[in-house]
Amino acid sequence: MSGSTPLGQLASVIRSKNAGPFQITIDVMFAHAATYRCVLDAHILTPTVVARLYGIDAADVEVIPFDRVFSIKVTMPRRWGSRGSGSAGDRDVYGAQQHGPLLDLPVP
Amino acid sequence: MAEELRIFALNGSLGYGYDRASFEAGIGVAPQLIGCDSGSTDPGPYYLGSGRSLVKAEQIVRDLKPALLRARAAGIPFVVGSAGFAGARPNLDFFLDILHTVVRDEGLRFRLAVIASDVPKATVLQALAAGRIEAMPCAPPLKASDVEQSIHIVGQMGTSPYIRAFELGADVVIAGRSCDTSIYAAYPIWKGYDPALAFHMAKIMECGAQCAVPLAANDCLLGTLRRDHFLVRPLASQRVCTPESVAAHTMYEQGNPFLIYEPDGVIDVRDADFRQIDRQTVRVSGSRFAPTNSLRIKLEGARRVGARAFTIAGVRDPNAIANLDFIEGEVRASVRRNLDSAVQAADYQLHFRWYGRDAVLGELEHAERAPHEVGALIEAIAPTQALANHVLSMARSSCLHCHFPGRKATAGNLAFPFSPSDYEGGDVYEFSVYHLMQVDDENALFPIEMVTV
């Protein structure tokens, strides 16, 4: 996609972590207000997009901009484990490596 | 009410370590309380299910001893929450054994409050029947069988049991499972400080110097609470707090960056003001608190689901790497064929994780480049360790020798780094309970045992 930059390149921090055993929360943080605004205004980080990338229901996804620190918080159900973090079939007990699908999201 | 309260957080989790110079700097400001969080659900359900600690006894002694000695020498309270990692009775007893050893070795004498956090199954079942249980977001609804199958159920205590312990004259408080904020917020609330500021400061302090730059869960943080604001400052001279680092930490591990839900109420940090006042220190004001009129305690329960056996091996052959899905299917079928008819498919689970291909993201992985090397983790879970070992052994040999289209490396598909190749992972648990329960009397749910040691 020409003329676009991957979200992972624009963010200064992009961290994923459990918010309890049944949810993952991803903080996408930017160093500058302009980059933050640009990503917000592009409307590329929405519950619908996140739901598609993670194979979940958009109604379960929350995308919360946090102007004070130029950050966008994305909270969603955890995908792995038959019943919460550390249950059978889990892939990421702490949820620390679940930001991958957001890294390549193109920002026009 | 004193002009200010200086509260000293050792680190993000007792046993993670802290810098000795930071520790001495913290003692040097004459804090009125030393606290430390000691647990978390982050490492999964094993620690609650088994009653064991992630952090080892040696790590706890290393962090505990200097802090306890200096707190006693200064005559200030020392507070540990979520002791033994999960806070259930065996976790708490593990921690108390360590504490008593230090007390004996050092000849200490003080008033100890031990606050248990185990919630009887009957209490949870009654609440469930009375419609007083609510699932946390994305957690499945609670069934009576979930409660009955739980090995341990604990509640995350709020500030009331801690305040009760201080009222009873505790010098040292060792509490079971706690809201992280209770450890640091209870004492100032008891002393009459604004709960909004006390909770907000506690939320920032519970991870130690994780809110600093460079961040570190294994270092000390000082919180200074005053009438209308609080200050946070890392105690290592090379770290600083910035308005951004502190504000950003407010949202760490929180589903919502603006509202922090505690049993006592909701802390609203939307209008909080973060200001740099010197090189290392940030001043925070403007947080608000809405007390709840219906006390709800978060319950955590874990049950055993079986035992685990696993093996790790490398795959380097490009034809094998191109056929991993085929191989996985063949191995599953072969294990099923070879197992006794007495063992049903529902009696065991086989999991394959292909590191280098999609082990972390599973079906969400979209990387297209073929890896030149793949790490294979093959895992069996079954009701008994013996059956898990049996299933794994069959899967491992089948995977090693499995034929696939285009196979040229016919002597073996896996490079094992170890002999023996197969490992027992022990018991596997899962969170059976992660729900809110309405509670009328928090102090009755979390009984305090006062002893002079």
Describe this structure in words.
The complex is a heterodimer of chains A (108) and B (453). Chain A has one domain. Chain A is elongated. In chain A, strands 2-3-5-4 form a four-stranded antiparallel sheet, with no helix packed on it. Chain A has a two-stranded antiparallel sheet with strand order 1-6. In chain A, 23% of the residues lie in helices and 27% in strands. Chain A is an alpha+beta fold. Chain B is of the alpha+beta class and 453 residues long. Chain B is 32% helix and 28% strand. A ten-stranded mixed sheet of chain B has the order 12-13-9-8-1-2-3-7-4-19, with helices on both faces. In chain B, α1 links the parallel β1 (4-9) and β2. In chain B, α8 packs antiparallel against α9 (195-205). Chains A and B meet through β3, β4 and β5 of A and α10, β16 and β18 of B.
Backbone CA Rg of chain B: 25 Å
Number of strands of chain A: 6
Tell me, briefly, the overall form of chain B. globular
Which strand order do you get reading across the main beta sheet of chain B?
12-13-9-8-1-2-3-7-4-19
Annotation keywords:
heterodimer; A: 108 residues; alpha+beta; four-stranded antiparallel sheet; two-stranded antiparallel sheet; 23% helix; B: 453 residues; ten-stranded mixed sheet; six-stranded antiparallel sheet; 14 helices; 19 strands; 32% helix; 28% strand
Short summary:
The complex is a heterodimer of chains A (about 110) and B (about 450). Chain A is α+β, with helices and mostly antiparallel strands and about 110 residues long.
Q: Secondary-structure blueprint of this entry?
A:
The complex is a heterodimer of chains A (108) and B (453).
Chain A: E1 5-6, H1 7-10, E2 13-18, E3 23-29, H2 33-41, H3 47-54, E4 62-66, E5 71-77, H4 100-103, E6 106-107
Antiparallel strand pairs in A: 1-6, 2-3, 3-5, 4-5
Chain B: E1 4-9, H1 20-28, E2 33-39, H2 46-50, H3 57-74, E3 78-85, H4 89-106, E4 111-115, H5 121-129, E5 133-135, H6 144-149, E6 152-155, H7 160-167, E7 172-175, H8 180-190, H9 195-205, E8 221-226, E9 230-234, H10 243-250, E10 259-262, E11 265-268, E12 273-276, E13 282-285, E14 288-291, E15 296-315, H11 318-322, H12 324-338, E16 349-355, E17 374-382, H13 385-401, E18 422-438, H14 442-445, E19 448-452
Parallel strand pairs in B: 1-2, 2-3, 3-7, 4-7
Antiparallel strand pairs in B: 1-8, 4-19, 5-18, 6-15, 8-9, 9-13, 10-11, 11-14, 12-13, 15-17, 15-18, 16-17
Helix pairs in contact in B: 3-4, 7-8, 8-9, 12-13
